Amino acid sequence: MIELKDVSKSYDAKTKALESLNLHLREGEIVVLKGVSGSGKSTILSLIAGLSKPTSGEIIVDGKKISKLPDHFAAAYRRDNIGIVFQKYNLIPTLSVYENVLLPLFPLNLAKEEMDKKAHSVLKKFSIEHKSDMLVKNLSGGEQQRVAIARANINHPKIILADEPTANLDEKLSLEFIDILRELKEKQRTIIVATHDPLFFDLDFIDRVITVAHGKVI
Amino acid sequence: MSSINFYLLEYAYNYIKRHKNKNIFIVLIFTLLVALLASLFFITASLQKELQERIAYTPDIVIQNYRAGMPAAITQKELDRVLEIDGISSGNLRVEGDYEFLKAKRRFHLLGVDPFEPSSDPFIAKLVDENEINATEMLVSKEVLQTMQKAYYSDFFNFVLEDGKLLKLSIKKSFDPKRRYDLHNLILLDKDTLRKIFSYKADEGSDIALYVANKNELDFLASKIRLMLPNAKVISKNDLKLKYKSLFNYDDGVFLSLFVITIFTFFIIIYDKANGLSSQEKREIGILKAIGWRVEDVLQAKFYEAALIALFSFVLGYLVAFVYVFYLKAPLLGKIFADESVLDIANFRLDITMDLSYTLLIFLLSVPLYIAATLIPSWRVATMDADEVMR
To answer: Which of helix, strand or coil describes residue A217?
Structure first.
C-alpha cells in the first residue's frame, strides 16, 4: 500500500535527512519507526503525508506517485487519505475543540448537519465530546492529544501517521493512546508511529518495529 | 472563490477576533485614514458647491482700485468711463467692507445700500425694498445683533470714525439670514453713512459692480476694462467660477499635503503588512495545509479576513467622515480650508454633498490594496512546503 523507493531527502547541501531509503507497508499494518532524534523518522512521515517532497526517489501510496503530486492534489490527497497526529499536536489553541476537529472539512463546505454529525461522532469516539465547546488552550496535554487524534480521524483516513505521539504525555496517558491505536488497528487502518518511546516496542498488536538511523532503515 | 464558503468566512471572522488587539489597531488606523480622506473630499466638494452658489449673487464684473499695490477707493469717474464701453448694460459704485469690532473680537461686513440701486442678491434686494434705511439707522443680522447685545448695545451701535469720533447708528431691525452663512455678519446701512465710516469722499466707493447683457462677452469686456484701467483689478464672474473650481483641486496646497500624508501613512501600513507574517501566523497556515487545506482554501480564508477588516473600516471611516463634516461641521479641518482660501468663506454651511467618483477613489486606494497586502504574504507562505512552514 505504501512504498518508498530509493528515497533521499536533503534540507540543505550539508543535511541529508534520508539516504536511499526503501520501505514497504501493507494495508492495515501498524508499524513503529524507532530511532533517536534526527534519525529521519519524522521526515519519513512528512514525505508519506505529502507535506514535503523527496529530493530523489519515489513514494507510492495506493498506486499513486505522491512524490510527484502538485500542491493542489497533495492537499486533497492528505485530506482524503491521511490523518496526522503531531508531537506538539499542532492544534489552534484559540479555537474550540469542536472547531479544531472540523477544521480539515471547512474547505469542503458540507451541510451543517453533516459537519455536526461527523464532529460528534469522532468527539464521542475519542471521549472528548464533553469538552467540545472549550478552547483547546484550556485543555490538559492528554485532552489536547485526544483532540488531535479526533481531528486526524474526522475524515476516516486510511492512513494514520503519529509523530512522537507520547512525547508530552505521562505514562497513564501514553497507555490510553496505545489503547486508541489498538482500536484503530482493529478498524484496518494503516498506522505508522514514529517514536523513541520504549512503551511501543513490545506491544502485541504492533506488526513491525523498524529502526531508522542516519536516514536509513537498519 | 466562486461561492461564499461560510465555514471559511466564520474561520476568518474568528481569526480576526483571535488576533483582537492587532486587528483593532489596524481597524482604528484604517478607519482614521479613510475618515480623513473622505473628510477632505466631503469638505472640498461641499465648499465648492457652496461657493458656486454664491457666485449666482455676484455682479458680472467687479472692479477694485489699487494704489501702490494696496486696495484703494474707486471713484464715480472710473464708473462713468467703463459705462461707456459697449456691452456694459449697467453698473454702480458699491460701498462695502469689513469693520473690526475689537471689543467682541468680531468682524462685521458693512454694506452701503441705496434704494435706487437694486442689489444683485435677491435676499438683500428684498430687505432694502421692505425697509427704508435712513442716515442714522441700520439693519443687522441676528448674529450681529447678538454680538452687539453681549457688548451692551441693545438698540444702537457706535462706529469709530477715522478721526476718533463716534458715529451712533440705531438698530432699525434685525434679519435672519437663515442658511445664507455668508450674510451672518452683515450690516446694511445708508451708503453715504458708510462713506463716513470708511472715510470715503462723496464720489468714492470700495468697488464697481457691472452687469453685462451678453454673458458670452464677459471675458472680452473684462479684458477691455483691464486695458482701460491698468491699476484696477477686474474680476469677472467667469474668473470667480474658475477660481472656485480650482480652489480645492488636487494641486492645491492644503489638499495636496493632507492627501499625501494620508496616502503615505496608508502605504506604510500596507508595506509593513505585505512584508511578512508573524511566526504564529505562518505556523497556523502550515497546520491548515498539513490537515488538507489547499493554497486556494488558505487564500480564500485570508481574502475573507482582509475583506471583512477593509470593508468594515471603509464603511466606518466613511460614516465618521460624514458625521464629522456634515453634522459636526468639520471642526479644525474645515477651518484650515477656510483660512487657507483666498476667498471669504469663513462662514460655510457644509451641506451634504456626495461625489461617487471620490467614494470610488477612496475605496480603490484602500480596500483592494489592503486585501492584496494581506494575500501576498499568505500566498508566499501557503505555497511553501507545510513541513518547512511548521518547522
So the answer is: strand
Tell me how far CA of residue A178 lies from CA of A199, B12, B248, B347, in angstroms.
Answer: 9, 36, 75, 82
- Chain A nearest CA to B271, separation (Å): 28
Q: Which of B6, B7, B291 sits opposite A151 (nearest CB)?
A: B291
**Strands of the sheet with B106-113, listed across from one edge:** B96-101, B106-113, B186-190, B137-141, B166-175, B156-160
ipTM over 0.85: yes
pTM over 0.80? The answer is no
pLDDT tens digits, residue range A46-59? 999 998 899 999 99
The set of residues, in sequence order, having a beta carbon less than 8 Å from that of B292 and lying 6+ positions away, is: A75, A76, A78, A79, A80, A82, A104, A107, A155
pLDDT of residue B1: 47
Closest CA relative to residue B26, chosen from B269, B300, B290: B269
Interchain CB distance below 8 Å, B287 and A51? no
C-beta atoms surrounding B369 within 10 Å: 17
Q: CA–CA separation, A132 vs A14, rounded Å?
A: 45
Instruction: Report the sign of the C-alpha dihedral through residues B40, B46, B49, B54, in that order.
Output: negative
